[in-house]
Amino acid sequence: MVSVVLCLVLGLALVVGAVLKAAGGPAARAALATYGIRSPRVALGVWAGLIGVEAVLGVGVAAGLAWAAQAGAVLMAGACAVQVGAILAGRSGAPCACFGARGRVGSASAGRAAVLAAALALVPLLPREEPSTEGWLAIGLAFALLGLAALCVVVLALAREVGMLRLSVAPRGALEVDHEGPEIGARSALAGAFGEALAPGKIGLAVFTSDGCGLCRVLAPAVAAFGAHPAVALRTFDEVEDADAWAAADVPGSPFAVALDADGTVLAKGTFNTGAQLESVLAAAERRRGAVRA
Fold this sequence. Notes:
The chain is α+β, with helices and mostly antiparallel strands.
């Protein structure tokens, strides 16, 4: 069974190498310049030949064919030799074209090729016993578990990349456009709708919504959470029920927010699509109110 498992693993490694070279496309062909192959036409031929040879040998090794393992050993030994030559020529760190275009020439890549060559040379010398039905089931289960583990690693790596991308992108605030909604610094009659809730020291948050706005329904819990803050007085204005307020404020659409001082002065406004953007309206209002007091 050891010989069978080793053949499957080595055959899979060769097939994966062929697939990644094919997926690498032009970048994988350009990586062959590390070994002195700079002609695009020659690089195309070598690239296609390597893909075909690795794919055929991979299938043959997985099937337990001795000649495929021996040929694969020669191929990997040659790969090790050319990489050692590139290292001695001072090209460490250059693309190695082993698994597409991402690999780099170095002691690790040369060592990997040497290990594969030795393993492929060893395979024909091992006694081969065909596994029983239970053995094949065990092998299949082991490969399935390994595939699942690899998938988990890929998903975690992707999640990390997405997280880093989100951290590198600066968050955007609410869209505040001049002459859309009440003017900043002007007194607004919206303050009267808050009544005694808009006490001195608080910020009045007027949120304009409509029944046909799906985003308004999604953001309703976030809007309510802001209203629970002791420094915020919240009032929502429906497009139909509060049509007069919509017209007086000249709101361009929903969801839209206006932040007011206790005396009705408009401190901030803007169209928002997320809770963070609504928070930016309150942050801008607090900042402007502080500047006026100063």
